[in-house]
Write a structure and sequence with these properties.
Strand content: under 5%
Number of strands: 0
Helix content: over 70%
Pfam families: TetR_N
CATH class: Mainly Alpha
Protein name: TetR/AcrR family transcriptional regulator
Keywords: DNA-binding, Transcription, Transcription regulation
GO molecular function: DNA-binding transcription factor activity; transcription cis-regulatory region binding
InterPro entries: Homeodomain-like_sf (IPR009057), HTH-type_TetR-like_transc_reg (IPR050109), HTH_TetR (IPR001647)
Shape: elongated
Oligomer: single chain
Largest sheet: none
Number of domains: 1
CATH architecture: Orthogonal Bundle
Structural class: mainly alpha
């Protein structure tokens, strides 16, 4: 039997992850079945089970891969100093939205995982680590931003601002995805009532905290 190349394997896994993200983003983790993913991917059941022993293993791997790719988008967007928070916000949104591997389905899957009781400890740990990474990167920018009164903030305040900033960025994608849904659930209703990112940024920086 010929050896499967690393590139071929990576291409198959990418397609499988995309099918997993799409199913989870549409109907959630609990309702997604391995059959849904197999049918969406177009692969045979034998091929899928050759890589993953169960739905749980596949979902876990897909979540961790989505987080890894999202972290890459955040890293590229925060490499250069940004003069203002709105500039960094637009840079982050563009970096995430224009990467096909970190688009709506991946973001929808991450949000579904975030509110699911079935998410694995490994996936939750990866999400927490990504959040800390993003907040650390944003905090370095926030240290250089002047407030309306012309002063700079200390590291603790910059980190608090960064946590809120990351929440707004990720919440923006959740709001974009769920705002057109006609269903009513606590999550969807909360997202519908969320403030826009620009209003949140204006309030944050007008307080001079």
């Amino acid at each position: 039997m010929p050896r499967v190349s690393d590139a071929y394997r990576a291409k198959r896994l990418d397609a499988l992850y995309r099918a997993t993200w799409g199913s989870i983003a549409r109907i959630g983790i609990e309702r997604t079945t391995i059959t849904d993913i197999i049918e969406s991917s177009g692969f045979s059941a034998g091929m899928v089970y050759n890589y993953f022993a169960s739905k749980e293993d596949l979902v876990d791997a897909a979540h961790i891969e989505a987080i890894r790719r999202l972290r890459g988008a955040i890293e590229s967007a925060t490499e250069k100093p940004s003069p203002r928070p709105d500039v960094l916000f637009e840079r982050l949104i563009r970096a995430i939205a224009t990467r096909p591997e970190a688009g709506d389905n991946a973001m929808g899957a991450l949000w579904s995982m975030n509110v699911s009781e079935t998410a694995s400890p490994a996936a939750r740990a990866a999400l927490d680590e990504m959040w800390r990474f993003a907040a650390d990167r944003v905090a370095e920018h926030a240290l250089r931003w002047e407030r309306p009164d012309g002063r700079l903030v200390g590291r603790a305040a910059a980190r608090a601002d960064a946590d809120l900033f990351v929440s707004v960025v990720l919440g923006y994608f959740a709001q974009q995805r769920f705002r057109t849904l006609t269903s009513s659930t606590p999550l969807v209703d909360a997202l519908r009532s969320a403030v826009t990112h620009r209003a949140a940024l204006r309030r944050l920086w007008s307080t001079g905290r």
